[in-house]
Amino acid sequence: MRKLTRNTIIGGSVAVAALGLTALPAAAAPTSVTITAAGSSGSSVAISGINSGNVTAKDTSTGAAITCTKGTASGTSKLGTGLPLTAVASVTSVSLSSPANAGGWCSGPAGLTIQVTANTSTPWTLDVTGVTSGGVTAGKLNGVKASIVGSDNCHATVTANGVVNGPGGSVTGSYNNSTHALTTGGTGTTSNLKVATVDANCDPTLINAGDSVSLNGTFVITPALVVNAT
Amino acid sequence: MLASPRRVVRGAIVTTLLASAGLLAAVRVASADIGAQVTYLCATPKATYPVVLGIKAKVPTAGKTNTPVRIGDVGVTLKAPGRLRGEFAATEVPDSTGAAPEPSLSGVASIAVTVNQGQTSVNAAWPAFSLTADPARTEEMVLRGSGAVPALLTDQAGQVFWKAGQMVLRLSAEGRKASISTLTCLPKSGIVLGKLALKGGTAPSVLPKRSPMASQPKDDTTSVECHIPPAPTEPGGGINRDPRLAEPPIPPGMNLSRLFPERPGTPNCGKAAGFGNLGKLKAAIPIGAQISFRMSVQNQVDFPHNYMRSRNYGVTATTPSTGTALGFGFMPTTATVLTKQVAPPGASSEMANLFADSHLGNVDNPTSFPIRAFARSFVDLRVGGISVNGTPVDVGKTCHTGALPLDLSADLGNDRVGKLSPQEGGTYTGSVYVPAFSGCGVGEDLTPLVDATSAGASNFLKIESGRWCPTTPESPDSCDSPEPQAFTVLPGGAVKATAGPFIMRGSSDSYPTPDPDHVGDGVWDNTIRCESATFQMHFKRGRYLSRYRIATIDGANFKKCVRFFNGVSTNVTTVIRGAGLPWTLHMDTQKGPGQWFAMISGVKLDVTGSDGCSFSLNRLSEDLTTDVPGTLPALEFYADKNRLHIPTAEKGGPSLVVGTTPQCALSNPDFQSQANWSFVAADFSFAPYQKITSP
């Protein structure tokens, strides 16, 4: 089976992913962030995301990829001025699927279908890591864990650095104010996600424990947030 | 007129060849009670007729294990074209007016129904139903009947399905000189007749069944169910290493990864149907196949080239199929053929091999090789049930070919026309070469005649595979391999598809300074509005067309296009040109009655503004360095309204992205590489009107 787990929740479509990624802000270190949402007041707001383009996960050691045509996510974003940079938003649920496939499973190599389950039992969190430039703010999604089941009965898990039963990993990306899109993966981004476990049903041609995993995906956030890190 | 046995055999054998893919019925899931309609294709010695079988019965909504589930009387309704009466008209004597009276028909329907639970399938043992025809004479002939069927008893909990298989109709014209005709009918678009949830007792085993050959009586030729081939470690399992079934060469330039031992792979079940072209008889016979393969048993990849060679193996069901053709150009000849997958001569493994070349990574990554599948096996064709003009000819029980090589292949696409995996279905073509028959005839050796007729004959096969379903324990339990999708397009040919207006938009709505009062208000920074867009299309024409590549888009013209910013015209006239033509239209799964999802592959738009801002819209490779043709999935094809709709992004519609080398001084992110553009208004109507139906 293909490996993959890329699932990241946020990852986005390859193609789309990138709005903004090539313009990732330089590594200027921000000190605080201001987040507003149209029509919302208070200290936080419930947010939801829907994918723009495919969401893909790739085993960067073998090249095998999982492609999901539909992705949804939900969580909460802090609102306010001068907010600390860590955990500005949390993701409490992520769903990835390809409705055209049997059972809605995502597509893997050579016709394999893959059920991707994002583990958000510990909510994923979003940190701001760069100063907002041109409406684009660099960030990092933490706590990313996932498990996959392939139509070949392959079971695998992905964690930070591939530690068995370890914590979720991190993937970097960005948020674009003008498109309200949260993107992970793409050129210049990093991930410490690795395959933690595979069972005997997994095809070693496609996935092995210890393989690195990248995630690409873009989720358009509702309500639209305006993020300004300085 | 009656044919001599020799003549009969000869025509029938050729017929047989065609049927060699084995014919089986396709079924689709239905509702809780038994209540379904199944469309059959029924053959008589003279012609082929579509017949719709309606079945209705009352079944409890739930049942318990070890407790009989009683089914009420089953009502059967058959609807056939009125012209079927013509099969009997010749026996009628003209009345005093000189007109032949309509024959009064009655008969019997024998329907092969199976009960299925998990991977177990048994004959439901439904009795034959007596039929009588409605007296009214219309363009449609209706026969009705009813009868009691056996209760169901099982010790396993879980879902139980009733599925329809082959149907045999024996009809007679009553009164006067009797005429009896037998129609062998194969489901064309079938459905599961009904299902029932059984509670209690032991959960059904999730383990694969034994070898299909082992789990089925040797002489059982009625089962149409999918049985999982034995695993590589089980007797009879594994890729068939006979050199006559060897894999095709790896595409040039590939450097394959390490070869690991064979794995159990993914068991898949599917159905296929199509036609065999009887070259010598100039006729076509409907054929079908039950597919059961272990996929991804042994894979090798070339990561940099995005290439994967998968090696797979499996079996096809040994189901009798009946075909009718005009032997010797005038002789209606019917033959029933049993196709059995066998080991190559002198070898032991009966497995068929399926080799597939496909992309390894993201579907957007370019591939430099054709996506293809190659199915290779040996089959033995056994002939029986031959008749000419309804007169049976006994060729005995040993008339068969011996092991014949069957070599089929499918073109599953490329970057430009779109890519399929074998599990998504496809069109397989090939031929059967028949070197010799043996053991034909009772009392008289008809083998030489058979050989003289068919030896060396190359009979062309074209088979459409439906989507396959994985049957591993954790695969979606709703998976029921669907019948192959086939479409009828009339009149087809050149078609102009026009949308007006045609509008696309970027994805930025508040650049450069976010204004919380306007962010997310749906007013996009950039839109391009055209008075109209016209696709010059070419639809295939005819019946039983593949869903894949059903039409090409040979031209794409956009009229009077202007770019808008924040909803206000910029007076920047814009030229959009379709590039990389032709594009390809594929039909996909059904959305509703007369409605299907569709997909266009190969799309690229070149956009040039009068302000010098130009860019392409297509897709990008995963590393964002290469423009690749775009695919527009999730389109909505409304055959009933004669239009093709591209949904908006908000409705899950597709998008394209700015290519790698935009030439644009504008700083708005909508004009930078990778920027996302989606469709706002793109509703295409066809002219001339196209009548598109499935099957």
The overall average pLDDT of chain A, rounded, is 85
Helix content of chain A: under 10%
Major sheet attributes of chain A = 8 strands, antiparallel, barrel
Strand order of the largest sheet of chain A: 2-5-7-10-11-14-15-17
In total, how many beta strands of chain A?
18
- What multimeric state do the chains show? heterodimer
Distance between the termini of chain B: 36 Å
- List segments of chain B where confidence is low: pLDDT < 50 over at least 5 consecutive residues: 1-32, 90-100, 201-223
Order of helices and strands of chain A: EEEEEEEEEEEEEEEEEE
Q: What count of structural domains of chain B?
A: 3
Helix- and strand-based class of chain B? mainly beta
Shape by Cα distribution of chain B:
globular
Rg value of chain B: 29 Å
Number of discrete helical segments of chain B: 3
Keywords (chain A): Signal
Signal peptide (chain A): 1-28
Protein name (chain A): Secreted protein
InterPro entries (chain A): TAT_signal
Q: What are its keywords?
A:
heterodimer, A: 230 residues, mainly beta, 8-stranded antiparallel beta barrel, 18 strands, disordered N terminus, B: 695 residues, Immunoglobulin-like, 14-stranded antiparallel beta sheet, 8-stranded antiparallel barrel, 3 helices, globular, signal (chain A), Secreted protein (chain A), TAT_signal (chain A)
Topology, element by element:
The complex is a heterodimer of chains A (about 230) and B (about 700).
Chain A: E1 33-37, E2 44-51, E3 55-59, E4 65-68, E5 70-78, E6 80-83, E7 89-97, E8 106-107, E9 113-118, E10 124-128, E11 136-144, E12 146-150, E13 155-160, E14 169-176, E15 181-184, E16 193-198, E17 213-222, E18 225-229
Chain B: H1 5-18, E1 34-43, E2 48-57, E3 62-64, E4 74-81, H2 86-89, E5 104-117, E6 120-123, E7 129-133, E8 140-147, E9 158-174, E10 179-189, E11 192-199, E12 266-278, E13 283-302, E14 307-316, E15 320-327, E16 331-342, E17 352-359, E18 372-388, E19 391-393, E20 400-411, E21 413-414, E22 418-419, E23 426-433, H3 447-454, E24 458-465, E25 469-470, E26 486-490, E27 493-499, E28 502-505, E29 526-539, E30 542-546, E31 551-565, E32 568-579, E33 583-592, E34 595-609, E35 614-620, E36 627-628, E37 630-638, E38 643-645, E39 655-658, E40 676-681, E41 683-687, E42 691-693
Parallel strand pairs in B: 3-11
Antiparallel strand pairs in B: 1-2, 1-10, 2-4, 4-8, 5-6, 5-7, 5-9, 7-8, 9-10, 9-11, 12-13, 12-24, 12-25, 13-14, 14-17, 15-16, 16-18, 17-18, 18-19, 18-20, 20-23, 21-22, 23-24, 26-30, 26-42, 27-29, 27-41, 28-29, 28-40, 29-31, 31-32, 31-33, 32-34, 33-34, 34-35, 34-37, 35-36, 35-39, 37-38, 38-41, ...
Keywords (chain A): Signal
Protein name (chain A): Secreted protein
